[in-house]
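Minutes, project check-in
Item: structure for the 507-residue chain
Input as provided by the requester:
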Amino acid sequence: MIHHGLIFGLKPHPYSRSAGAHRIATVLREEGWDCEVIDFARLWDLDELKELVRSRVSNKTVFVSFSTFFNYWEAKFDDLISWLAKEYPNIKTIIGGQSVGLTPAKHVDYWVDSYAEVAIVALLKSLTGNSSTEVKFDARFFGNKQLIKSISAYPAYPLDSYRSQLEKRDFVKPYEWLSVEFSRGCKFKCDFCNFPILGVKGDYSRTQDDFEREMKFNYDNWGVTDYYIADETFNDRPEKIKKFADVVDEQLDFKPYFSGFIRSDLLISHTETWEDLVRLGVGGQYYGIESFNHDSAKLVGKGMKAEKLKAGLLEYKQYMQDKILFRGTISLIVGLPFETAQSMDDAKNWALDNWNDQSLMTFPLDISGEEGSDYNAGQTNLSDFTKNLLKYGIRPMKKDNVDATDAEVVHNVLAPDHLTNEPLVWEHDTMNLPEAKDISDDIAKLIHQKFKIDNWNLSAISFGKQQHINDVPDAHLFGQEHGRPDEAQLQVFLKEYKSAKLSWVSH
């Protein structure tokens, strides 16, 4: 008997598909399952979701699941789960994603945290009576949540394949951007980073054949050429970039375009990768520089001197601009130790003078809480900042220093032992969280006025123009206001997708 399951993709971005949902569906199909993904579930109303379920459920249906993105959830999904329990009591509900234990879902049967290719197969074999091995649930949540911490209980790295194969019933448009994963994990261990797989030794990227197969399949079936790169640091190894650039040059008869995370100090130190990035088509690049204050950057493992970094970025920008549609996004964390209002002002002014034809992002330093809290226990991984706050001179902000009119900050600071679902309200010798938030908010206003659209939102241009990004005239000139397509156009897209899904009959 072929077992059946449904996965609802809960990515909050209105026209972006759930990469995790499609990856898990691909793995389960390879295991013999009939597994279907329903994208854009945030934009379906409850009655539509029920109608979809009714049209799909049969005596072969084992589970209905939800793939979250940064713990996104809505009450209507709780209502859907309650309805499922009444209408189909034998069907299990599963929720998965990074730090999924923090998702405020109710009455879910099973929770699967982090990369789940191995864990989901083990869980479903148990549910269908095809395994005599007990599922490895996390003991801390047993009795409250049947939660699997995949990163330790069922590691899913490295793998030979990270391919996601969408289906005819996914109704993909040629101008959509899909996600692609070249490798899993990062060779670095930046102190503030909470990614789950850090300090990876060696090149464990997927095979060239596997990458070629995915690119050709998506192009041949839907005409897709544009992709988000899921890797935490794409340019971690020069040989990896060359490996996949060779596939594009030698095996593909179309030119793909990619946008992903690029480590700027490696980019500047390895100029031999520049040509390969162009050959591969990585024109959208996000640089987690974090700070141009050398002491702050060095503290979190990014030690290149600011002047060398700035000069290298400008040289690289000049190199790229006549070779590919280039969009470089500089990302800064406001509030690292040693950072001051003056050093942030200096960084802002340099970007205004030298980078306003590209993109800039700033974020206040986000510390989720102190180690040992229930909140942090629900996370996939904790950064060294969270584990060792005092080592970095970071401490909970004293109540006497909090502006009593700032209700949000007061709520956080007065919460018992700071064990809340809110960020820790921190301070150190040169800044505190309210100050960092004010600085970041002020810079954000300038970003909207003065800078171009960021590399992630190039997909909004493609969607709005219904063209591949390389085919959009003057795409490099588009500003922040182009970060979201016209609402009427979005509604047409969603109406067509939902109608096609609801009327789909397998053949």
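Outcome recorded: Residues 179 and 371 are 33 Å apart (CA to CA).
No further action items on this chain.
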